[in-house]
Structures are given as C-alpha cells and as structure tokens.
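Re: [help] complex structure
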Amino acid sequence: MSLEEQQSDEPAELESGVSRGDELADLLGDLVVGREEHMNAPGLVIRPDEVQDALFKLRDEAGFDHLSCVTAQEYEDRYESIYHLTKFDDRTDEVSVVVPTSKDNPVSQSAEPVFRTADWHEREAYDLVGIQYEDHPDLRRILLPDTWQGHPLGLDYDQDRPQIATLREHANPLEEDHRAAGDSNTMYINIGPHHPATHGVLHVETVVDGEQVVDLDADIGYLHRCEEQMCQQGTYRHQIMPYPDRWDYISAGLLNEWAYARTAEDLADIDVPEYAQIIRTMGAELCRIASHMIALGTFALDVYGDFTAIFMYAMRDREIVQNILEDLTGQRMMFNYFRLGGVVWDLPEPREEFFEKVRDFLDGLPQALEEYHDMITSNEILQARTVGTGVLPPEVAKSYGATGPVARGSGIDYDLRRDDSYGYYDELDWDVVVEDGCDNFSRLLVRMREVEESAKIIQQCVDLLEDWPEDERNIQANVPRTLKPEEDTEIYRAVEGAKGELGIYIRADGTDKPARFKIRSPCFSNLQTLPEMSEGEYIPDMIASLGSLDIVLGEVDR
Amino acid sequence: MSLQAVLPDTISGLLGLEGVLGDVVGGLVGAFLVANIMLIMTAFAGPWAKRKITAAFGDRIAVNRIGPFGLLTIVTDAVRLLSKELIVPEGVDRPAWDLAPMVIPFSALLGFAVIPMGNGIQLADPETGLAFAFAAASIASLGIVMTGYASNNKFSLIGALRAVAANIAYEIPLVITAASVVIFAGSLRMSEIVAVQAEPLLSVAGVTIPTWFAFVNPFAFALFVIANLAEVGRNPFDIPEAPTEIVAGYQTEYSSVYFVLIYLGEFIHIFLGGAIAATLFLGGPAGPVLPGFVWFTIKIWAFFLFTQWARSAVPRLRVDQFLEIGWKGMLVLSFANLVLTAIIVGVIA
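Output below.
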C-alpha cells in the first residue's frame, strides 16, 4: 500500500470555506464512519478493521508522517483508541483518528505496519486499558508484569483484588542457560535491571554472538507509578501540577510542568500574562541546560567507562543551574513552580542579585562548553567510538516517533518550540539545532549546541525581565478556583521537553478532574529505536547508543 | 657476576649466616621485605592515592575525614573490606575460583624478584632477568582466565576472553620493544641494563644527560608505555573490566577478601609495569642527589599517576578497535623499531 503514488502537497493547503476535517474526510471517503471535533484537531472515526487502510492513506497521501501518540480509553459503552497524527514538517497540522471498538469484543487492527512506534504504544494500551490489537507483532504487557490480572485503566478494574502471582509464574532468568532457540553460537545476557549503564532500572534482554548484539528487547516498567491514574484523580487547578516533576525527574521539571500547563490552559481557555510567559521560558530553558548537562556527563560515563573528569565537570556546571533554579522555585528537583495561568511567585528578591547570578552563569558557559569540546568532541578516541555508530536513519526515526535531540541528531528539523510555538519562544531570537550525522556523535553534538541556544534564550529573557515595568509584573491570570471544562472536550497538546515531544491528552467529563489523562513520553518512543541502532553492532556501541538516547526511566515507565 | 650484592646475600651477611641456611633465611627475609614494600605502596595507592588523584582530575575533594588528608582511610577501608561477607555464588568452580585471587597478586609480586630497586634492594639478578619479569607478569592472565570461567557468570566470561585477547595482542609488542633495549644493552640481566644506562650521553651546560634508553630511543619508550598501559588494563585499554559494558568483567562475582586480592593484584601489576619501564628506559633507580630507592619509587609512582591520568581523561576503545591497534599498529611498529635498532647498533658497533 505504501507503494501507492504519492500525491502532491495539495491537501496541506487549506481552501477557504472547507475545514481541514472535511478535506481529510473526503480523502478517506468511505473509511470515515463518523466525525468528532477535538480541541487540537479534527477527529475522524474509523472502523476497527480499517485502521491500517486509513492510516496508510493519511501517511502516504496527506503526509501525516508522525504518529505522536496512541491514547486508549474505556467509555461506558465502548472502548476507543485515538491515533494522534501530525507532521514532522508542519506540526500544527493535526488529525485524530478515533477507533471505537465494542465492549464485548475490543479488537482493533494494529497500526504497527504503518508506524513502527505503534508497537509499544499499542502494547501499553492493551496493558493498561485492555484493547486487543489484531496483526500486532508482539502483543504483550509492557509496563505491568506478565502475571498481572486485569487492566488498571479499564472501568471495571477492581483495585482491591490481590495480585497473587507465585514465583513459579515468573520466568526465572537463572533457571536455564538462555540461548536463542536452536542456536548454540549465541549467548543470552540480562543487561540490567541492575547494570552500571542502564540509567535507572531498565532491563535489556540481549542475545549476543561473541561481542556482537544479535537481538535485544528492552523490558521496561520497573518504575511504573500509575502517574496517569494519579493525575486522573487530581483536580485540574492544583492537584495535578506536582506530578509532572516526577516524570522526567532529571532536572527537567519545569519543562514537564509546562506540558500540563499548556494542555490545561488550552482546555480551560486561560490566557497567561506575558510576564509570566517570559519567566516560564527562562525557567524551562534553565532546566533544559541542566538536563543536557546530565545527558552529556552520563554519555561520557558510558563511553569513558568511569566517573571521569568530564562527568564531574558537567555536574559542576549543572550545579550552578540547580542553584539558580532553587532560587527561582525554592526547590532543586520537584519544583512545582508553574500554576495554571502563570507561575506561583515572582522572581526572588533582590532581583538584581538573581539577574547577576544568571548572567554570571551565562558568561561562564562558553568557556565551559569549550572545555567540553576540548575534552570530548575533539578527542579522537571518542570520535572513533561514536562517529558512525548507533546509526538511526531519518525515515526510521520518523517511523518510531523519535523526537527531541534524537530526531534532530538524525537530521530531522523538528522542534515544537518553533514548529508549534508556545510561551515566549516565537518572540525570541534562537535557532533549532540540527545535525545530520544520524549517529551517536551527532546526538551528542546536538545536545551541546542546544545548550548554547538555550543560553541565548535565557539571555534575552533576562534582558526583558530586567526592564519590565514594576507595575506590570503580572505573574498569574485570574483563574477560577474550580475548573470544570465541558463534558467530552478532548485535547492533545505537546511541548518540547528535554528529551523530545512531551504530550498530554485530556478528556474532560464535566467534573473538576480529568476523565482520561494520557502522557506521551518522549523517552518511551525514543527508547523503542534502540534495537534499530544496536542490532549487529558491538556491545559497547549498544551501551553508547543507549546513553545517547538519554532516557529517564521515570518518564519511560511513568 | 652481578655488579652489586643482591639483597638476600646482604641480609645473610648481616646475620652472619652462611651456606644453605644463609640462602634460605636471606631469601625469605628479603622476599618478605620486598613484598611488603610493594604491599605498602599498594595500600597507599588503592584506597587513598587513587581517590585523591582522580578527585583532583575531576574537581572534587575525595577522602578527607579520617586522619590527616584522609590517610587513615587506608586503615578503615582495610577493616571494612576484610569484614565484608564473602559471597560464593552457586555453581562456581570451587578450587579455581578460590585460587584465582591468589594467582593474580602473586604473579605481579613475583615479577619484583628481579627488579633492581636501588640501594641494593634486588632479590635476584639472574642472567635472564628481563625474560623472567615478563614471564611472571603474564601469569596474571592465567588467573584472569580462571576467574572468568570459574565464576559461572557471562559477564565474567566475556571479561576473561577480552583479557586474553588483549594479552596476546599487546604482550608481543611489549616484549619486542623490550628486545630493542636488550640489543642496546647486550644483556637480559637487569643490573647490566641499568649499568649501561648510567653512562653519559651528552653534556649540556654542565648537566650530564645519561644514556637512559628513553632518551636514546624515545620512540621505543612511547611504544613500550602504550603497550604497558594495555598490559595493565587501564584506559583507554580498560577492556577486560569495562564497567559500563560488562559490569566489572572477570571480577564481577568476587566480593570481600577475594575482591581485595584481585584489586591488589591489579595495582601491583601497575607498579610492576612501571618498574619494568623504569628499569628498561629510565635508568632504573638512577637519579641525582636522592638515594636510588627514592628515585625508583618516584618513577613507578609517576607511571601510576600516568595510568590514573589516562583513566580520568581518555575514553575507552571498543574491543575490536583495541585489537586492531594491537595487531595492525603496535605489532608492526614494534618490529620496525626492533629491526631499525638492530641495524643501527650493528652499524655503529
């Protein structure tokens, strides 16, 4: 089907009078059995046995090449999978493909043949909600143990039911000398969940042939904390905001908070004062620098093999950012600084001191980066290790929904701060960093150069904040004490997190709590590309590739 | 025929013992002394100096709580490590698993038997001294193979295989480069190699530069140091342990005393590598003003410092790149060096 002739870009251009939804419905013709209107995009309802046809058409003929997220949910009368499609070239062009399935036979066609990223997303939908996907290559549980009873986000799930699983039911990795079936030349190794290079509790089931990786399967879920369900039990106004800090907990807190803030503000139609947007932008970019510093340090750790000088240098410079963030938010890790409609408080007094601190950091940054370049990127051994290893071609990256520095390291010019602008980014002067090496080295370079761009943004924010008239420092809009968005409003919004596109889907049911809260984690999608980058390579390259993905298991598992 | 009386003879002379009894007592006391000198150095290097050095490279402070400059950490670490439980995993191959942690430090200590440490501290000075030192140092590989297969752990096995591959790839360039020194010195006897280097090379403004082979043939010295770095398994040749790849390589399953012994063996091995390099290229214990033993200590610690520097600043090579450099680079260069040296020495002499 993918061989069908590609049409020109015509559908992307809106004709006056015809809505985008009509246009796409025309394209799909009989495949569309109903229409919905989501706040971010038109929704097309598709029969569960025609999902692949519809998605192929949308991908090949309308250019929707990015399956950002798959949301699954259960209604009183049906199950529903929503495929949130968009384009790498035009992020604001979105469409939601809604696939309802009946209660007694929740079987839907898999989207995996169209978008590889659907593999894990549909496994998650099956695991948590209970929808079955036909034609899926490997429909297993992904976050919960294989022995789990029931689907926790389903409506009739019994939380009190004891989850009794005898030890015998769990596959014991030590029981037998694992080998790939019928092949005595390979060896099975468990890399993780306790291993120096897995950046948390990740378990990579690896089959090696000597030193070469033949097959690998990332086993995740060790850090699953029911974040989605917890958010569904919190009120929009105050009780959800602390959770995002706990997804990507490695310094990226404000970026995550922004994901929720943006979604909920669009949902409840809240305008954020300009002054607060500038503070948000500055805080978020400080978080990005801190996060990229960690990524740099731990990547060096994976390649160098020890807590070497470069790791400590990165930590040293990150510490300065942490201190600034502590001054701003009162916290080093779990900031909880954003509020719907603004931020919780203004910049710390005395303001001059704060600005000076930020400026000192920005002044010292070029020298620090030069030091990193001397030690890392210009090191020939490091180049030998990283250039041309862990190759992720752009088409593959797109198919897996890779975003953030991983996508930009594969030459995909895609950054939500510019392509679907929010906050104060479109008023500022900065560039999207793209490297087209597609290898570990490119991803490293992208992060290092993004630190420079973030510094540019912070510089401009500080300039603006310093000159802001004192009587116009409005940090929060007037927001009602209780937010009750209208029933059945649905929205999917994303921001550029430290690791990529961090999206949130919310469906309101008329109460002050979301009926469905779905998190699209960039790390989850990025981690899926690991087998593509590592199979056939050496173990050390697999470790380096894993490091270059810069995953945080708290965000992968949620 | 040695130039200086070896240590056991000195001791038996001091004690007034003669004959077989003198040999036995002198030999045992001498070996005890030399082994303890090295163990004390390792005690400083392992729990304290290594931490301080890497901390200095990484902009940290490291141990500073117990004793002056944190020196008493050495004592507390010894107590801590010795009081830990020795965990014996299921399915280990018992005699081999127990023997390996002894083989590794033993081989490194054995090598010091022929090293002239200055001030007459040298246990034996056989005609084949250099060959003996290399042979003794290589026994460590045997120990590593034993840890690898006996641990019943796949990471250990990979680590051991890597260690063997590394050893074969780098032992040959190491020995061949050393052979070029032997051509200069005309002897394998350690004391003679040192003695030859004492002759003046040239005199600049009243300062006499001796014929240390590092000055005579700096190329060979560089080759030797690189091969030596691989031999002792430090970055960028940290392949057999490779913590982020294969956990801890061959020593993954070892804990408590056995772990200490393996670690000890590695450190003594670094010192032995430094000692051989110092003897072959840096005039052994020779040096101005200070006594020979002090110079010897400085030289082997300089090599230790060098390994730690490399560890802090240089990335690790991938295993295939590592072997490629060994077989395609080092081996060719070391043979070229040997042939050139032979021709030059042949023409001049």
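Chain A has two domains: 21-134, 227-555.
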